[in-house]
Amino acid sequence: MKQIAAPKGWAQLLLTPPATPWAALRSVLAAGPAATMQTLIDAGLRGRGGGGFLTGEKWRITAASDADVKYAVANGYESDPAVFTNRLLLEKNAQAVVEGLAAAALAVGAREAFIAVRAEYTEAARAIEAIIHNAERDGVLGANVLGSGRELIMSVRPLQGSSMIGEETVLLKALAGKRGQPEQTPPYPSTVGYLGKPTVVNNVATLAAVTWIISNGAAAFKQIGDPAEPGTALVQISGSLTNAGVMEVPTGTPLAEIAAAAGGPTKGATIKALLIGGPSGGFVPANLLASTPYSGGGLAAVGAHIGSGALLAVDQSVAIPELAAMLTRWCADEACGKTIPCRIGTRRLAEIGQRFVDGLAGPQDVQKLHALAADVADSALCAHERLTPSPLLTGMRYFEREFVPTGVVAEKSGAVVGRSE
Ligand code: SF4
């Protein structure tokens, strides 16, 4: 795991520790909760964990509750086993995450806050613990935060389990020692969260951005990246690109530029697609890389999503149906089993995918794939199920001839199935 140096001119705000530790927290105490949340809304900061909600608005919901006990949680649990962006962030810039979480807790009125990390992230956990220990010793955190009279107890919570723990409601259950299955939302954790109390949950990258915004101002943040989703994102680059690792990328950067910044294709490789978003991500073919920006909106337009932050470069030696079927199988295996359409539907999707790989698929399988994918997405209790069809659907959309070499086509409605040529 390493950081890939970004090209000159690309803002690097998440992986750069604050110039003056705790300056942001002092600003939060001076400005007060309402002004702090307004600053985040003015900055246009959206959650980096996939939901894309405005962070300031999310905090406002928890802040508005008159519950006697509230919590703040930093989600550093990485669901995708091939992604280490949270880990790198916590090892390089735990200060910004701790400070952002403290800001969240003080803004919403929480007296207790947790940073959840994968249990194997021992180095990251140690870095966080050292910061918290020193902050309590110096009166920055603890019974009297910077002499404000506010109390804030913070701790690291290592967690171990399935990929589902990354989902917000599962994370809160795992923290409480309960079975890790998602809950129906609403109510959202903002109102009914950890131990049934209002809980603000933010991804660690979101919290690092909070610290930067409070220190540098909303206007400066809005200048970075895509104006509709400003800031930067940590992208995990792997596959057939020269440099593998984590790169901090301004939102809105075209995918082709990211691939070039990662050194371009490995020797002898020709990139035929990027898989964006992890195991339930979408394939973006080579001819769309220059015109597709790395942003929630830009990726959604081509059937992909930011997801886990993974960018996997796929070269000409890879059979798209094989990769798509394998990813679908992984998603089916990881489904928690709580709801039947997901438990059974994702398994059937994986079987359809395998029939394409084995050359046993017929026209009815194209039709079934689209119909089942629509059912699975419509009935999803959580994002895991909703997004599981993405590799097969985008694979079929952009690489149809690899799935059905004879040119069998089907309308999505399933009403017409015929042969093209
Ligand atoms: S949709 Fe799938 S992963 Fe989500 S709760 Fe239901 S069974 Fe579990």
Q: What can you see in these coordinates?
A:
The model is unreliable at 409-421 (pLDDT under 50). Helix content is 42%, strand content 14%. It has a 5-stranded mixed sheet with strand order 6-5-9-7-8, with helices on both faces. A 4-stranded parallel sheet has the order 3-2-1-4, sandwiched between helices. The protein has 16 helices and 11 strands. It has helices at 23-31, 33-43, 55-64, 85-108, 122-137, 168-175, 204-216, 218-222, 255-261, 296-300, 320-334, 340-358, 363-378, 383-387, 390-398, 400-403; strands at residues 71-76, 112-118, 153-159, 199-203, 232-239, 245-250, 271-276, 282-285, 310-315, 408-410, 417-419. The protein has 3 domains: 23-222, NADH-ubiquinone oxidoreductase 51kDa subunit (Rossmann fold), CATH 3.40.50; 232-315, Ubiquitin-like (UB roll); 320-419, Up-down Bundle (de novo design (two linked rop proteins)), CATH 1.20.1440. Helix 2 (33-43) crosses helix 4. The protein starts with 22 loop residues before the first helix and ends with a strand. With 421 residues, the chain is α/β, with parallel strands linked by helices. Bound molecules: iron/sulfur cluster (SF4). Iron/sulfur cluster binds at residues 181-182, 335-339, 342-343, 380-382, 384-385.
